[in-house]
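If you are new to this repository, start here. Below is one unmodified record pulled from the training split, so you can see the exact layout before writing a loader.
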Amino acid sequence: MVEKKKPTKEVIKAAPIKKKELKPAMDPEARDKQLTRLAYDLAAKQLQDGTASPSVIGHFLKLASRRENLEQEILEKQMTLIEAKANSIIKDREGENLAKDAIDAMSKYRSTSTEG
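And here is the target side for that same chain:
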C-alpha cells in the first residue's frame, strides 16, 4: 500500500530588503509614514517577485479602482465647474448689455424730455 503524504502549506518568504538605518521618527505621524513606506516597498517587491499574497494583490486592485472612481468623479465635477463659470460669464455679459441698453434708453429719454 502506498502512503499518501499530507500536503504541506508552502511558506514563501520575501527576499530581505536592503536594510537601511531608519532615523527615529520625530512624532507618531512621521513614524506612520515611515512604516507605510516600508510596507509599500515590501508589497512592490512581492508583486514583482510573484510572491504577493492574494490579500496584497486585492488591496492594490481595490486601491486602483477607488482611485479611478475618484479621478472620474473629479473630472465630472471639474466639467460642472467649467460649465458654471461659462454660464456666469454669459450672464455677466448679458447683464452688462442690459445695463448699457438701459443707460442708452435713459439718455434718449433725457434728450427728448429736454427738447419739449
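Two things worth knowing about this chain: Residues 3 and 100 are 100 Å apart (CA to CA). The chain has a mean pLDDT of 84.
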